[in-house]
């Protein structure tokens, strides 16, 4: 979609897209060979690497640095996932005890 001169190849692009999209493309610099290649990155972490914790923090609109360090310890323990989940439920006081089931 880029011409030999390094500009957008408008004759090739124009028939394919509506004018609104073409206007948006015109505002973007075409890729240049001397620039680094584009790579996807997760914008909510400094390392640009996706983590479930950063996605959760984004959804909850929370800062990752404010997360209690106990959770890092729990989720990094070399134990089965069901045990980690049980610990998480226990620390959130969400386990369904017999008394609660009876009630």
Verbal overview:
It contains six helices and no strands. The protein has 103 residues and is an all-alpha fold. Among the domains are: 1-32, no CATH class; 62-96, no CATH class. The model has no long low-confidence stretch (mean pLDDT 82). This is Reverse transcriptase zinc-binding domain-containing protein. Residues 50-99 form the Reverse transcriptase zinc-binding domain. InterPro entries: RVT-Znf. Pfam families: zf-RVT (PF13966).
* Count of extended strands: 0
Can you count the helices?
6
Low-confidence stretches: none
What fraction of residues sit in β-strands? under 5%
Order of secondary-structure elements: HHHHHH
Rg of Cα set: 25 Å
Structural class: mainly alpha
Nearest-integer average pLDDT = 82
């Amino acid at each position: 979609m880029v011409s030999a001169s390094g500009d957008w190849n408008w004759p090739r692009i124009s028939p394919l897209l509506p004018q609104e999209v073409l206007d948006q493309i015109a505002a973007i610099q075409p890729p240049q060979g001397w620039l680094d290649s584009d790579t996807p990155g997760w914008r909510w972490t400094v390392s640009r690497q996706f983590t479930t914790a950063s996605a959760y923090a984004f959804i909850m609109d929370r800062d990752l640095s404010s997360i209690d360090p106990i959770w890092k310890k729990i989720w990094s323990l070399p134990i089965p996932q069901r045990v980690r989940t049980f610990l998480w439920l226990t620390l959130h006081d969400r386990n369904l005890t017999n008394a609660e089931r009876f009630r």
